[in-house]
Amino acid sequence: MKEKTLWHEYLQQACQRQIRARVLAAFNTNIDAVIHVTGELMDSISTKDKSIAWDKVAHGDAEDIRSITSKEDLLLVLKDCLSGGKSFHIVLENLSILDWLDQHFTGAQANMGGQAGIIANQMASLGAQSMVYTPLLSPKQGRLFVEGVTTPVVTGNRVEIRPVPEAVRSDDETKINWIFEYAKGEIVRFGQEVVTTPRANRVILATRPRGSVMSFDQTLAGCLSELGKSIDVAFMAGYHYAEPINVDGRTFDQFMTDSVNHLHALKEQNDDLVAHFEYVPMKRPELEPKMLQTICQEIKSFGINENEIKRVLREYGFEQEMEAIEQHERAYSLYKGALKLFQHMQLDRIHVHNLGYYVLILRKPYPVSMVEVRQSCLFASAVNAMKAKYGGYVEREQLAEAARLPLSEIGFEQLVGMAEELRAEHPQASDLLSKGYLEFADHYLVVTPAHIVSNPVSTVGMGDTISSASYAAELVG
């Protein structure tokens, strides 16, 4: 493809960008305590803790366990998952087990978890003005925010923006997710039973403290219009936790009504404030279409990946578009599926990220030029490439290296295929190859190649990183 040199020039220019937007990330933050389960570790636990009832672990049925109430429950779930190479997510009801975990699963690495926490840290690392709002801000949670992240604090009737270390609350609980990772071929003993893991995977043990409410608290809710004046873009995350009855007693409908009212208030004194919602599948799929439709009354930018979009299309009854992606996943089928969601959800922007390329649809008129959108996508790809290569949070200085990395062959192949398939629908379809965007009657289409990093150090938070970096980089602040 002769345009590759041109795209490399675009990439080099994109890596010079700086995020000037003032960013807010809310709501879900937690601590991910990551531990690698090995035969040696389990043997050590068995030796140290003679109180474990291994007969319950041997004769119990993991399918009967809906939540973890004892250490035997946890060991039974681990045994079942390791023997089958399965991933699993389950909630810890008995929080006293956290002390037992700290005592016996030693060496766990504590990382920032949750979309809001990851986005806030990444934005600050890139030099942006980064603010986070999280319902629980214990000292333990606060220590995982990078320098520069701030948070709103209400004093009297006014909002003050303080550095996170000055705003932590010692009485707050900490939401901790224990992540038990295991490698392929690991031989692990559970009492008298021995299992060999057929593949690598992980088991997530989540906590749900009552204070972990994915919403602004009542004190701050009355000051949201004032807070909104300090923000250019809000990345909202955590609505996927909504339940028929939520942890604070509100019904689903009450929670949704309050959420929409809060978002509206946040924008009340700032007409330029925009908000983005990065999709996470709900554990209650029957509630998901209503949740999305409700939240998208106020949030008009939406991020999703190539697998998740199939679920949402099916939930809304767009079977033809879902099956087209299922049968032949490519930029064109993702565009057609995304266009259906874009129209049905009445969005202004949808960003579909896939391995090696991104597909975006933007409503006309759009406040930013398509050149800026394309360059922002390449900027996000560069950030994500450095995250994949080195892990952690990427700093602007690292983007010089990303500027030298080639964009993926998959991305260029998708550009060529997309231009060919759109030829019958658009007279300038070939412009995609050199520009990366096309104008339609009521929307713009942007397709950009992206980096692929072999053997990434980390894949956690990649979608959050791509979507937040690209959207924030569009805005002049």
SSE inventory with pairings:
Elements: H1 4-14, E1 22-27, E2 30-36, H2 39-48, H3 54-59, H4 71-84, E3 88-91, H5 97-104, E4 109-113, H6 115-125, E5 129-133, H7 139-142, E6 150-155, E7 158-163, E8 176-182, E9 187-190, E10 193-196, E11 201-206, H8 218-221, H9 224-228, E12 233-237, H10 252-266, E13 274-278, H11 288-295, E14 301-305, H12 308-315, H13 319-327, H14 331-344, E15 349-354, E16 357-363, H15 370-390, H16 399-402, H17 409-421, H18 431-434, E17 437-439, E18 443-449, H19 462-474
Parallel strand pairs: 1-5, 1-12, 2-8, 3-11, 12-13, 13-14, 14-15
Antiparallel strand pairs: 2-4, 6-7, 8-11, 9-10, 15-16, 16-18, 17-18
Helix pairs in contact: 1-15, 6-19, 12-13, 12-14, 13-14, 15-19
